[in-house]
Amino acid sequence: MMKKIMAIGLICAALLSLAGCSAYRDVPHDTGKNSYPVSEYRTTMQYYEDFKILQIADLHLGIETNVGHQLEILKDSIRTEEPDLIILTGDNFMYASKGVVKSLISALNQECAALTAARGGRLTKFTMTFGNHDNQGDYSRYYINDVMSTYATVDGREIAEQKFAAFVDFEDDNLFGLTNFYIDLVDDRAKDSDTVDVKYRVHIIDSNTYHFNGTDYDYDVIRTEQLEHAVNVYEQATADKDYIGLAFFHIPLHEFQDAYEEFQRAEDPSLLGQGEFREDALHGYRNNGSYAKLREANVVAFFCGHDHINYGDFIYRANSEAVSDRAIFSYGVKSTNQLYHDTDMIGYKTITLKDLTASDFVTMENIRENFKNFTGGYSRYEND
């Protein structure tokens, strides 16, 4: 409820004053009509055992933020964890300038370049999807994508060109939203799509902004064409279908609330999850079947941000013996003290990927060992 009230107030201000106000109309975000093959939305990274993802959530960097101080904290997290892939799951900006956008993305590229060099050429890359606040800034709708794209290059050219963004965007495509690409973690980047062994597939999905309900604004949902696109990726991208699918987005699915309630009711919650959950799931305005469709796309683990005073990881439908009826739902840890927060719930999440089957991946044993939520970082923000 707290975030709902704050969001409505922010929307009202944004509608009156911000150049990005068109993002709140309940119309398709994109006007392009071009259809691209799913292979054009693909980029790859070499998979290594103990491949580490660093999830950064809800930075909310803006013109009133001490951006330099916040970036130093972010850099420290990257240097501490030495991840292979950094994923920002939306609300990276709020009321930001172009300079703030450039500062964050440039800092991420610099850290990835430095870590890649320090690790003897083992790549560290970064990517992001968008939240409901990212386009409330002094820039055009595609500006963040344009900056990200300047740091992206074709597979294998990262070190030569010093560009470490894993990012694919077509402004003129027929897909709703700003990010609908995927990163394949493979045994050999040189192999073609008929022979490559895909260990994990990481979908980066835009869960969009707001939906006008006739009187005010609710949170939006992942749209039908985005979901169909994810299914097409599974069916068409590679001959290998035996991989573990992960999806990263901002606004939680309706099923996050179901998993949360099951966790609360459990006699032993540790059998179903870990973490702290201090507010209900602030999901989209309706359940449009996103969970079922993404499962059809071979996604078994779902990662979001958005709910600032939740973090942790659930097994969904944990009582089922069938892998097809189980999934992981995971909240990131809010990574700054911007906007509302609890001081003992600031930090970041790491997900370490091992060479597992899907049935072994979707277990509490895997979560307890390989999903780490680092919290209590408020003292690092004392100067902000």
* SSE class: alpha/beta
> Tally the helices: what do you get?
10
Q: What is the number of independent domains?
A: 1
CATH architectural category: 4-Layer Sandwich
Distance between the termini: 26 Å
What proportion of the residues form beta strands (DSSP E)?
Answer: 15-25%
Task: Output the radius of gyration.
Answer: 19 Å
Largest beta-sheet characterization: 8 strands, mixed
List segments where confidence is low: pLDDT < 50 over at least 5 consecutive residues: 7-30
Q: How much helicity do the residues have? A: 25-40%
Would you report the number of β strands? 15
- CATH C-level class: Alpha Beta
What's the pLDDT, averaged over the residues? 91
How are the SSEs ordered, and which strands pair?
Blueprint: H1 2-17, E1 42-46, E2 51-56, H2 67-81, E3 85-89, H3 98-118, E4 125-129, H4 143-150, H5 158-161, E5 180-186, E6 198-205, E7 210-212, E8 217-219, H6 224-236, E9 244-248, H7 255-265, E10 273-277, H8 290-296, E11 299-304, E12 310-316, E13 327-331, E14 348-353, H9 358-361, H10 364-370, E15 371-374
Helix pairs in contact: 2-3, 3-4, 6-8
Task: Please provide a written account of the structure.
- The protein is α/β, with parallel strands linked by helices and 384 residues long.
- It has a single domain (2-381), classed as Metallo-dependent phosphatases (Purple Acid Phosphatase, chain A, domain 2), CATH 3.60.21.10.
- 28% of the residues lie in helices and 21% in strands.
- The chain is built from 10 helices and 15 strands.
- It has helices at 2-17, 67-81, 98-118, 143-150, 158-161, 224-236, 255-265, 290-296, 358-361, 364-370; strands spanning 42-46, 51-56, 85-89, 125-129, 180-186, 198-205, 210-212, 217-219, 244-248, 273-277, 299-304, 310-316, 327-331, 348-353, 371-374.
- The strands form 3 sheets. An 8-stranded mixed sheet has the order 1-5-6-9-11-13-12-10, sandwiched between helices. Strands 4-3-2-14-15 form a 5-stranded mixed sheet.
- Residues 7-30 have low confidence and may be disordered.
